[in-house]
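notes to self, project folder thing:

trying the whole complex as one job this time. last attempt i did each chain seperately and stitching them together was a nightmare. two parts in total, labels are on each line so i dont mix them up again. if this works i'll redo the older ones the same way
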Amino acid sequence: MDSSLAPFFTPAGIALIGVSHDPSKLGYGMARNLIQSGYTGSVHLVNPHGGELLGHPVIKSIADVPNPVDLAVILASAGQMPGILKDCAARGVKAAIIAAGGFRETGAEGAALEQECLRIARESGMRLLGPNCIGIIDTHLPMDTTFLQPPPAPVGEIAFISHSGAICAGVVDYLRGQGIGLSGLYSLGNQVDVNETTILEPVASAPYTSVVTLYMEGVSSGRDFVETARRVSRWKPVLALKVGRFDAGRKAAASHTGALAGQEAAFDAGFQRAGVIRAGTTEEMFRWARALAWSPLPAGRNVAVLTNAGGPGVTASDALELNGLKMAVLSSTTREELSKILPAAASLRNPVDMLAQAMPEDYARCLSFLLEDPGVDSVMVITPPPPSSSAGGIAKAIIPIIQAHQKPAAVVLMGDLLVQEGVQFLRAARIPEFTFPEDAASALGVLSQRAELIPALEDEPLIPDRINPQAAAALLQGKPAGFLSQDVALDLFGSYGFNVARNDLAVDAEQAVSLAETCGYPVALKVASAEIPHKSDVGGVLLGAKNGDEVRKGYLQVVENARRAKPDANIEGVTIQRMLPAGQDVIVGTIRDPQFGPLVMFGSGGVEVEGLKDVAFALAPLTRREAVGLLEKTWAGRKLNGYRNLVAADREAVLDALVRIGQLAVDHPSILEMDVNPLRALPQGQGAYAIDIRVRIE
Amino acid sequence: MDSSLAPFFTPAGIALIGVSHDPSKLGYGMARNLIQSGYTGSVHLVNPHGGELLGHPVIKSIADVPNPVDLAVILASAGQMPGILKDCAARGVKAAIIAAGGFRETGAEGAALEQECLRIARESGMRLLGPNCIGIIDTHLPMDTTFLQPPPAPVGEIAFISHSGAICAGVVDYLRGQGIGLSGLYSLGNQVDVNETTILEPVASAPYTSVVTLYMEGVSSGRDFVETARRVSRWKPVLALKVGRFDAGRKAAASHTGALAGQEAAFDAGFQRAGVIRAGTTEEMFRWARALAWSPLPAGRNVAVLTNAGGPGVTASDALELNGLKMAVLSSTTREELSKILPAAASLRNPVDMLAQAMPEDYARCLSFLLEDPGVDSVMVITPPPPSSSAGGIAKAIIPIIQAHQKPAAVVLMGDLLVQEGVQFLRAARIPEFTFPEDAASALGVLSQRAELIPALEDEPLIPDRINPQAAAALLQGKPAGFLSQDVALDLFGSYGFNVARNDLAVDAEQAVSLAETCGYPVALKVASAEIPHKSDVGGVLLGAKNGDEVRKGYLQVVENARRAKPDANIEGVTIQRMLPAGQDVIVGTIRDPQFGPLVMFGSGGVEVEGLKDVAFALAPLTRREAVGLLEKTWAGRKLNGYRNLVAADREAVLDALVRIGQLAVDHPSILEMDVNPLRALPQGQGAYAIDIRVRIE
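result (full assembly):
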């Protein structure tokens, strides 16, 4: 950890600046919370009026605060802040939490004040959290610098980092009701200095934190975040709720890849690289976090369901399938053992339905057999309020069984009041419980997701051979912003080891015929103009010309079509390209995201690519697993293996092309976006050819 | 209502058969619940041992039960049931709830007993609910025939009909905790007589029921359910949680339509026709039900968000977009009025962020302006535990404002303990509250869905002109089960007014040339064999033959290819078809679902239809709105309007084809499945042609 951040995490003494005697004021709440939190360092209350508060003297001036003091928490008007920070620096304070608002969020004047605060902090080496934030809670140290209403945050093993302060108040209260405990809470506010990336590793490194959760409205630096989060994810699960999906006005994109990417594709690709699990809702994030904090990880996706009624079993099967899990096939040994315990009418197939008479000891014995079955990776145990026993009794009976095995168990206690005793027993034993099978299945799904992503965090990006970055740089050097001409684009791809369809420029019809004779019929004619990106839209493409006469007429036609559609465009001539044998046409592309850098896209191409949306994205440069993932997530990729009368294509060549285009984008930051549409994958062993290439540079 | 069902809903007297003095037995719970429920009719407890229970005499024999008695609730072993039912019938009981299990769910012997019970009931005109069910609760009558543990079910306006009894116990307890009230609960068990369709209309007709919810594991008769539910949906919302998505082993399907349909497509299409709103999870169903019970319906999808912090506003915007809602654009009047109330740093754009200092009266005043704005159809009001006021205070301030307007309001009180007072105030005022914006957005979305589906319930299916059912019947008459030959299929489609691509059978190469000369080049050659459904898979198709020579060679080639691939297939020859001008190729098809009858499919065709899965289904016969819906749900349908260089196609002709194929399937039940792949939609005004048709009959 950057040692300058240490005072936020383990302060020796804290000065609360701006405390109040009025219990309705935030400055009172701040003092109350820190004093009642059990913080064992020195607490210094500061207010110009002095006096005494909650048994502590109130110091009139920051200069008079005694040692030790390394952290200040400040509530004051924004205008006073620069002066207070100077006083803090002079007094030797190393880090400050500016809880007060009135800065960037209010406009230009506030933004200037915020920058002034940063300048003062930088000069003295002081670190800042905020402004406009709630502060920090550490339930284990313990310490509470917030002014949140009591009761205090529930103690646990989940850390919560939030861009929104208002969310924190609701989340702490909500988690308390759910029996979900926090190890810490970190409100970031305007992030003038410390941001989600800076704080992530120190937060995760607390030994009492098992899972880190993030509420994110954006990211300070996408690539830095990915790098840090990937490091953290190797040893602790990181979950994120990213909001603001629809806020950012999308710039008009010139390429298919750009049009399809949008901001969320970049976040999804970034989270995937980083091993961050993205939740859909606030409640989902915390339910998942609790399961990850409390459960071992499963060895596979096979789940056994134990229930005392048919309906909940059906609901559970559905929900498990929807979450990508499988109903475990029970071994004959397991079925035999179950048959000895259960009545004849019980169902011994998964879901195991013990019937309504099942008593706590039946739950325990059956569960034990299920957990012993090598074909079972995790279990879901379900009970409605039992007619002839109690949920508490069932919980008590199954807890030791679950604790004796290293497999995840999600317990569903359907109901509320009538199952409360069971809920409390399970929470005390740190076994996740749920009200309905749907949430339990979602939690078991995320445990599998976590188990499977861990190996991916060790992957390294592939480095393609036969690339010539110098040659590529020379080609890009001095080119005007906009689209590269087709010949430069082809050379550029050639320099990165792509098979490119031979493609020569004819400046008149006779040269076109001569080029066609050289490369061989049939040929495709495409109008050559950097100003006409979508050539087929203007009738600038003719396919399948089979002899000199067709080429001659075709030349004149495509040029005339292009002239009519775009009279001002500079037309260089017509490219002549031998038409390749049949294969599978796909699109590969890249787009440079302002936050996350280059993304690689793969999917179904053609003119309909933007309508079909059969595309997937990953961060460049690609690991092998990510490249394969792009193929698996799309129909275009899955059908490369062959489908009905569609011959299997050269899948390896497509993977290779994905890696190459990613590397090209990474190596040359002036490239904004690229589309290869189509990349034609020939039958296995015959390679893949870039047929039409568009490259836009800065 | 069928008057024979009346004793289940308004019994004059109830005999509880099988009561017990042992408080741990279900027979005790049943007596306790009915007596404590406040039921005002006669209660008769029956047990051979006699005595007294809970202040009521226990009658030893059914024959001795005095008047009035029209409903019996029976807990006894399955073997005793026939005798008990006979006694009940003899005593004049009109309806019986068989709560006991031990019937069909336990195997063949139990199934036989169940049928015996049904026979006895039928003979005497007695109606049966169950066996193996929980019974009925009516919280308004009131009446409780169940043995569920106290406390009793919470009173409210939502009726719950369930195929699972076990789910009921959990749901009642859960709803109590959520402050969601039930008007009634109806547990159906094995449905030997009364099923979800029989009971739906009587349940919905109770004046104190505002919304009907269903937990369904299947359907007794799909078409009957759709008809009944569509009638009910016209005046009351019906919500369903359908489980068992993955249980039914799918039969191997011979057509693309069949392969893509599956059981869930039929349920989705049935629910759509019926106006039943399908929920994804148990919790979602009841949250939606409460919103529908308590809220007026919105006039449109524009939502205003009122909050006191930025973060929750961003979360709300995201969630609203995800649920298909729009952020309302506030009028200049509204913005001006808000600016008079709010501090300068507040955000007057939607979401309206009043900032953290907002007091209850600020919420009330701002909310009033938002609800008055004609561009606002509904509102979401959000507060985290407020630092300087209370959630209770805010709730109290906004309740009269919401009640004074006829627009839906979803109130988000983020937290638990700290917002409880506000939660209670809102529930008492019947205004739906939520813990996070995501759930509130989902509820507002369902209100819009309900508002929009009401007009669709008045739609009538379109009846196509120029159809000749007699001719079609004659063509189908006597044909063997399996695929029709292509010429019969073409005639069949011709008889229903389809444009079919002219398509003649040549039995040798010379006849092929002669047919091609007649219809005009270029032509397509396709091997003709009822045993080769996927012709292109075996090389049995040649496209674009341009002269006699190509046709002659092509004939020999496709026959040879087919012979090699399927040596045993009976090959009739080769069909010759003029190749149509370019257009947009789509697939239309039908499949006969065992429960819901014929479904129409529409989507992207070609050989990749099963991979792309760009298809949608609806029940035949189609209404205009349903046909349009099939187009709007698919990329294949949306691009008929034109896309880039793709010329707009004859959309009306495609809609017409969908209606015709649906009618064809409805009129002729022997048709199991049909695919038109492709149907070629020519440019606007030029029609759509069925090019390749496959019809499978019983």
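what i see at first glance: Residues 437-456 of chain B form the longest helix (20 residues).
need to look closer tmrw
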